[in-house]
Write a structure and sequence with these properties.
Blueprint lengths: L4 H6 L7 E6 L2 E5 L5 E9 L2 E10 L8 E2 L1 H16 L7 H24 L2 H12 L5 H16 L17 H8 L4 H20 L31 H12 L8 H12 L3 H5 L6 E2 L4 E4 L7 H6 L7 E4 L2 H14 L21 H10 L10 H12 L11 H7 L5 H6 L6 H19 L14
Parallel strand pairs: 4-5
Antiparallel strand pairs: 1-2, 2-3, 3-4, 6-7, 7-8
Helix pairs in contact: 4-5, 4-7, 5-7, 8-17, 9-12
């Protein structure tokens, strides 16, 4: 007589094991402890074996504990295996094998994930955070983001196994950048693949022997609007004189200082009072605050601060400004307007002021550099010679090209640059007053 749930429930333990058959070789083994175990005795290839299915339970889990129906299903599966000439596997054994297989698969997945370019890039980036400046790390973060996620339609390759990364992947991405960013991104990619090579994941880096800059523009510099004609520049200076901004009118001071010093707007906005010596008329810009500091380092340029000689007019302006912001860190602290105000005034604040004066698309904050460069380079003596050599103007603009470095190697030409900056400030006064600089043929007098 086959088993049923009521009969199984009524089975009581005895002093010794006993069996209750269900049919087809399946039976229930009742132990003195009260446990009830499903067993199946079978014969295959002349050998008698016993398959341990599991323990009876009113609500089985199909792995260790089984209802009567679940046990019968396992019994049928075992008979089918025997019919195929295979020894049946117990549910517990199957679970162990499945768990082991899952662990192997997971390990393989993790190993594969660890070998993606993106995972290796993150690991490289974590190492770079130790011992490098926040500015350097920030550049590395951006480079890795481009390499993993792409840029302007060019796909990144962060999800690729490092062994599957090819030259074309980086080449397509490199074409989207201006040269400074391109150099930085390529450098990061090469260093990351060098780690993969060191670990034996690849035999040869696809990036090591390729000149990714060949055939690409040296630098696609965005041309910024600037006034370079003296009369119009004088009109701009008069407009700035009448500008009234919010609060302490810091924007007015910023525009005036830009005109006098023609430094980069970002450099001026982040200027700190500790870098100024008004008694010596000097502004020393730290090396790490200079444009493309990373490129200067990689190309072996001297890691030097940059000094801006201050004219009498600039010193007077700064003394006024010091009464307003001199107790703080920055010359131009942010006014706190907007959803995410920064620590200092932004370049956009200066540009918006120029827009409000009617110079949108005509002159921008960065344009003061072009104005100074063009107007100063046009200055001539009565004999027709340049008042200032072009390379001296370039040096004061902090244009660090090879010709400037060669001419001014070991010499910062400070006396000549002091003369140039005072000449420029005096010329600004003349142009603002509506003149065309009758004294422009004469060098400034201290």
């Amino acid at each position: 007589m086959s088993l049923n749930a009521i009969r199984v429930g009524n089975l009581k333990p005895k002093n010794a094991d006993y069996r209750v058959a269900d049919g087809g070789g399946l039976y229930l083994l009742v132990r003195p402890t009260g446990s009830k175990l499903f067993r199946y005795d079978y014969r295959l290839n002349g050998t008698r074996r016993t398959l341990s299915i599991g323990e009876y339970a009113a609500e089985g889990d199909g792995v260790r504990c089984f209802t009567l129906k679940q046990a019968r299903d396992e019994h049928e599966a075992a008979r089918a295996a025997i019919a195929r000439g295979e020894h049946p596997v117990s549910p517990a054994q199957r679970a162990v094998k499945a768990e082991a297989a899952a662990e192997v698969a997971e390990q393989a997945r993790l190993e594969a994930a660890d070998r993606t370019f993106g995972a290796l890039a993150d690991e490289w980036l974590a190492a770079r955070r130790v011992g490098n400046s926040p500015k350097t790390v920030a550049r590395d973060v951006r480079s890795v983001a481009y390499l993993k996620g792409g840029y302007r339609g060019a796909k990144g390759f962060g999800d690729l196994d490092v062994a599957a990364v090819e030259t074309a992947h980086l080449s397509a991405l490199a074409e989207k950048f201006n040269k400074p960013t391109r150099i930085r991104v390529i450098s990061a990619a090469r260093k990351i693949m060098a780690v993969a090579k060191r670990r034996g994941w690849i035999k040869h880096s696809p990036f090591s022997d390729v000149n990714f800059n060949e055939g690409l523009p040296k630098h696609r510099e965005k041309k910024r609007p600037a006034i370079t004609e003296e009369k119009r520049f004088g009109a701009l200076l008069r407009e700035i004189d009448g500008y009234e901004g919010r609060g302490n009118n810091l924007t007015w001071y910023g525009l005036k200082l830009l005109a006098l010093t023609f430094v980069r707007p970002d450099t001026m906005a982040k200027a700190e009072w500790k870098h100024f010596d008004l008694s010596k008329a000097r502004w020393v810009i730290p090396f790490e605050a200079l444009k493309m500091e990373w490129l200067r380092t990689e190309t072996g340029e001297a890691l030097e601060d940059f000094t801006v000689p201050l004219s009498r007019q600039a010193v007077a302006l700064l003394r006024e400004l010091h009464k307003i912001t001199g107790k703080g860190r920055y010359l131009f602290p942010a006014c706190g307007v907007g959803p995410n105000p920064g620590e200092v005034m932004s370049e956009n604040t200066l540009n918006y002021a120029l827009h409000s004066l009617g110079y949108k698309g005509i002159h921008c904050a960065h344009g003061f550099r072009s104005s100074a460069s063009t107007i100063l380079n046009r200055q001539r003596t009565p004999e027709g010679r340049r008042v200032f050599e072009r390379s001296l103007v370039e040096l004061q603009l902090d244009h660090q090209d090879s010709s400037t470095r060669a001419k001014y190697d070991r010499d910062d030409c400070m006396p000549e640059r002091e003369e140039l900056m005072q000449y420029w400030a005096d010329l600004i006064d003349t142009l603002r007053d509506g003149g065309r600089s009758k004294a422009r043929h004469l060098k400034a007098v201290a």
